[in-house]
Amino acid sequence: MKTIFATFLFFGLALTGATAQNKMTKSDLTHVVLFKFKPEATPAKVKEIVAAFEALPSKIKQIKGFKWGTNNSPEKLNKGLTHAFVLTFDNEKDRDAYLPHPAHKEFGKIVGPWLDEVTVVDFTNQAK
Questions:
Q1: Digit-coded pLDDT (tens) for 23-46
Q2: Total structural domains within the chain
Q3: What share of residues in the chain are helix, strand, coil (percent, to 5)?
Q4: How open is the CA angle 30-33-35, to the nearest 5 degrees?
Q5: Per-residue DSSP letter, 90
Q6: Enclosing domain of residue 9
Q7: What is the pLDDT of residues 47-91, one digit of tens each?
Q8: 23 with 83: CB under 8 angstroms?
Q9: Which of 4, 40, 43, 20 is nearest to 121 (CA)?
Q10: Cβ contacts of 105 within 8 Å, gap of 6 or more
Q11: Which of 24, 54, 67, 104 has the most beta carbons within 10 angstroms of its beta carbon?
């Protein structure tokens, strides 16, 4: 139950930040990606992976907003997930174009071997 609460709290904070920074509309789609790296992923490798993820908005026009950070929650409920990435799209159609995009697929090849866990949740704002 605590994990579910922490997850919803994170998404709520991510949406709040995205709204202020990216001028989201009610129909925008938020794509949240959480990574737990394998122990053998060196800090240099993680930095390389983050740089590759940061490059995606310049390669994929459908990405409307992008931000990322490392976990700093004092609650200790992250279950080893250390890196959070929040992308916004105008709608599901744009997200659906992003998923099979060659640049996204190439990024998957870069990050895949180094991930122990990945969590992805997409949502459209339902807050009143």
A1: 656 679 999 999 999 999 999 999
A2: 1
A3: 45, 25, 30
A4: 165
A5: S
A6: 2-124
A7: 999 999 999 999 999 999 999 999 999 999 999 999 999 999 999
A8: no
A9: 4
A10: none
A11: 24
Residue ranges in the chain assigned as alpha helix (H): 2-22, 43-59, 92-98, 102-111
Residue positions counted in the chain: 128
Phi, psi dihedrals of residue 58, rounded to the nearest 5°: -80, -15
pTM: 0.80
Report the C-alpha gap between 15 and 37 in whole angstroms: 24
Specify the residue for token string 């989201």. Answer: 24
| Closest CA relative to residue 84, chosen from 42, 121, 41 | 121
Query: Distance of CA 29 to CAs 13, 50, 52, 75, Å?
Result: 15, 22, 22, 27
Specify the amino acid at residue 124: T
Domain of 67: which CATH number?
3.30.70.100
